[in-house]
Structures are given as C-alpha cells and as structure tokens.
C-alpha cells in the first residue's frame, strides 16, 4: 500500500488542499504510511516554497509514532530560511541522537547564501568545523559563489539591492572565510549524488554566478 501512496503523492497536484484531502482519505481508510512517505510530502512542499506546512508534517510523523530519519532532516533543511530555524533543526537532530552531515549543512548554507545573511553563513561554516566534517565540492561552491556575489554587490555601494547585505557584515564574513578556507581541507571523496546531477548550476546559483562575473581578489 505504501508504494501506491508514493505514486498518488507524486502525481497529486502540488497544492495544500489536494495533499490534505489525500491525508484525510488515508486516515479514513486506516491505511498506514511510513516515514518515507512523510519525507516525500515534506520535499514536495519545500519545492513549492510552502515551508511552514512542510515543517507541519513532523506532527503527522509524531501522531503515527514514526521516527524521523536523516532523510527527514535533509528535506526539512530546505525549509530553514533563517538562522533560528536552522538552529532548531540542528537541535532536533542532536536530541534524537543523530549528527548533521555535510549534505544537510550544505542545504542550510545554500539557504543562508540565498538570504544574503552573513551571520547565518558563518554559523553553518562553524558547525561544519565543530562536527569534524570536511566540506564537499557543493559546499565550497556555495561559499565561493557567495563571496563573488557579495564582492560585486558591494563594490560601489554600501548595501545590495535588497538592503540585506552591508559592508560590516560582509567584512566579517570575508575575514572568517579566508581563515576557514586555510584550515578546512575539502573532502577528496566524490559527491555520492553527483552521478544523478546535471552538469549545470541550479537556478539560485545562476543568479549568484551571473552577478559574480567580475574580477575579484583571490580570497586565499
């Protein structure tokens, strides 16, 4: 039955009403679902930007006496758009006896860069170091793209066009970034997901790359 639910969820219109109707039908039919189904639902909601309802899926996991796994936290990381929500996620991971991996931290870093929150970016970098993890290629790509983006954005003005990035915040990030890169060696092992990825930047990264095509000082 779970396999059938996966198919229904995958083919379902990506709206909260359609998803709630499916969950109600499942409840009335007394059909059981597992944590993998919940992970799919979280991811589906995150992909359309419905972060609050994505986090609400945790209630369904608790009601069914299911146990979140690392995939649950991996998809929930997509919903963490602030440092506070990221801190809460990391605390939840620790409370359940897990440790964050570089993929989860990479997702948090991507969100921090997209939000142009230098303090958030630094916090993720520190967590990676404290956990004794090595940055993979994707993690470093997000950092380097953000450095180029911020360098261009602040080249002739004190804040970027959103008003979220100022000179002082970026100077703090740049100082930490340089020292961090000198002490953190990259993970030489290949990204386990690389074989499934297209060799092109994601939409968010295209924005950073386009804005970052300028001459800039080597941070190292």
Automatic annotation (TrEMBL):
Domain of life: Eukaryota
Pfam family, one: PPR_3
GO terms classed as biological process: tRNA 3'-end processing
GO cellular component term, pick one: mitochondrial matrix
GO molecular function: tRNA binding
Protein's recorded name: Pentacotripeptide-repeat region of PRORP domain-containing protein
UniProt source species: Graphocephala atropunctata
């Amino acid at each position: 039955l779970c396999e059938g639910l996966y198919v229904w969820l995958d083919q379902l219109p990506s709206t909260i009403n359609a998803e709630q109707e499916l969950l109600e039908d499942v409840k009335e039919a007394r059909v059981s679902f597992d944590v993998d189904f919940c992970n799919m639902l979280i991811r589906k909601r995150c992909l359309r930007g419905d972060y609050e309802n994505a986090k609400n899926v945790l209630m369904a996991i608790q009601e069914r006496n299911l146990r979140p796994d690392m995939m649950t936290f991996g998809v929930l990381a997509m919903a963490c758009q602030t440092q506070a929500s990221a801190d809460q996620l990391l605390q939840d991971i620790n409370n359940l006896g897990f440790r964050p991996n570089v993929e989860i931290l990479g997702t948090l870093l991507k969100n921090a860069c997209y939000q142009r929150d230098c303090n958030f970016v630094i916090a993720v970098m520190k967590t990676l170091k404290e956990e004794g993890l090595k940055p993979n290629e994707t993690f470093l790509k997000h950092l380097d793209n953000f450095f180029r983006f911020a360098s261009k954005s602040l080249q002739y003005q004190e804040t970027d066009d959103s008003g979220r990035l100022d000179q002082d915040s970026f100077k703090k990030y740049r100082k930490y970034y340089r020292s961090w890169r000198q002490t953190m060696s990259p993970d030489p092992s290949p990204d386990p997901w690389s074989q499934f990825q297209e060799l092109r930047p994601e939409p968010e990264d295209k924005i950073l790359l386009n804005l970052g095509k300028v001459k800039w000082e080597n941070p190292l």
